[in-house]
Amino acid sequence: MLSLLGQGTTLCDGITRREMLRVGGLAFGGVTLADVLRGRASAGSGAARGKSVIMIWLRGAMSHIDSLDMKPNAPAEIRGEFQPISTNVPGVQICEHLPKFSQMMDKLAIVRGIKSIDLGDHTPHFILTGFGERGKRPVIGSVVSHQRPHSGGLPPYVSLMYKPPGLYDNEGPTYLGPAHRPFVPKAKGLANLSLAKGISLDRLRDRRQILREFDTLSRDVDATSGLSVIDSYTQRALEMITSPQVREAFDVSRELPETHARYGKYCENFLMARRLVEAGVSVVTLKVGDWDTHEKNFSEMRLQLPQLDQGFHALVTDLHERGLDKDVAVVLWGEFGRAPRISRGDGRDHWPEAGAAVIAGGGFRMGQVIGETDSHGGQSLGQPYTPSNVLANLYQHLGIDPSITILDHNRRPMHILDDRGLVQELQSA
User: What is the pLDDT of residues 146-165, one digit of tens each?
Assistant: First the structure.
């Protein structure tokens, strides 16, 4: 299906626009691909090129005390069932169920004692925005889409956090507008990267010529409506639909069977993330596992930690072997930590006072542990870092000044982060 002059649509900026292109039914949350591309023209020209971020959300919040910040000398009700093992960085220990992590600790940085917020449910909002106001601030991928120019037909922001019938919790652009939603390669999104039945490339080119004729309609419409530049957005939309590079980036079946085996259970998300950043996508978000271990902490972690260990090791190793470790920053974390004291038999409850994150790549300083918690893993010793601080490093890596402001619905300048302090230990000398 390709339609010209559809119904009027009012977007978040308050401007009424007419739908000018719909190719193959491709839509992002109700807007066409051309709508998605429309907001990119205002992006600055000085942003860094070729840098990407993979953000891995451990939904439910993995227990830091039983993985990355173990307390073997604490009482039994604190230290839990798992034993620590040494890593290839002297003096650094992690959980016995993360042996592959331990072998590549020199390629990782662990940030301990991260202070977060318990929003009352399991949402990635705080780690995606740095703000506790759920649904009111744009996520990092939307900010990057807004600020960075992009080319080659690939979307700048892809979410693998799919939860039918749409995006996962709060992964949205808010006042940046629907043009900066992530592309979701599930359901209709991925299927519509091919041409609609009965539409050939030649027919698309013919219809593109028709659209050029309709461009004269923009003479009586304010330029901000987007009609005056419809051809450029149409071109970009057609690039994405017809580009073999785009389709191939999302096709993990092109990888060898042994590669799939090396990534293990979480292959689909980890391997697709690697393929996407390698192709040029700026931000990829994904969800791995379910770590809401209130009642069955140790039995669930005994099952999931080896799977995480395998997939994450394969991802980081692939990025290094392909020479992408400087260009691609990876962060692995949950929405908060887990309580020091075991309760409910075999569980740990929510604990926003202290958690942990793993950073890889991005040209950051690796082979270190940043921050320290008390003997029970319950509080940071010293001033704790927050998700906002980690996001500041990621923005800087992407060539975006974390102190910039963007206008909201009411034309007020809003900082992309209020707490813009960097995790200084990550910065290269």
Answer: 998 666 678 899 999 876 65
